[in-house]
Amino acid sequence: RDSLAFNISGCPHGCPECHSKYLWDYKGNYLSEDFDKVISKYKDYISCVCFMGGDQNIEELYSLCERAKQYNLKVCIYSGINNIETFTNFICNHMIDYLKIGSYKEEYGGLNNINTNQRMYKIIGTKILDITNIFQKPKI
After folding, report:
1. N or C terminus: fewer CB in 10 A for the chain?
2. How far is Cα 140 from Cα 129, in angstroms, rounded to an integer?
3. How far is CA 137 from CA 39, 112, 114, 133, in A?
4. Is residue 61 classed as helix, strand or coil in its secondary structure?
């Protein structure tokens, strides 16, 4: 099955080389109101939801993760926040399965660059595994 990504607008980070600058402004539908309808439409095709953004309102993001878990879906969060401690409550309460953190800094590159400041974690229970290296291609 596939993942369904939700782009959450109102990103507070404003990374200069952001690939999703359209998410800086608050635009679009209110996800809390549409979430169940969208999940019901795609539930037979997905096993995971990915929230890209949303760290301007951590409490609401947590609530969306709870709702996704009620559908027995895996949850991934992509955040520009630079520290994992912000998501301690999510991890301790088993609300997320994957977490990507770190603002985009062009000089360090994205996850595929060995110099990246961004990290990708797999969460198993309360164990946090850094899996960033699986996105990095060896130099030939």
Report:
1. C
2. 27
3. 34, 6, 8, 8
4. helix
Per residue in 23-61, pLDDT (tens digit) is 888 888 888 889 999 999 999 999 999 999 878 889 999
Alpha-helix runs per DSSP H in 1-140: 31-42, 58-70, 88-92
Task: Give the angle 13-36-50 at the CA atoms, nearest 5°.
Answer: 40
- CA distances to 93, 114, 115, 121 from 138, rounded to whole Å, are 35, 9, 12, 20
Matching residue, tokens 């595994």: 129
> pLDDT digit string (tens) for 64-114?
999 999 999 999 999 999 999 999 999 999 999 999 999 889 999 999 999
With contact defined as beta carbons under 8 Å apart, do 30 and 97 qualify? Answer: no
Rounded-to-integer distance, Cα 47 and Cα 3, Å = 6
Q: Over 80: is that where the pLDDT of 63 sits? A: yes
Let me know how long the chain is. 140
Model's pTM, two decimal places?
A: 0.91
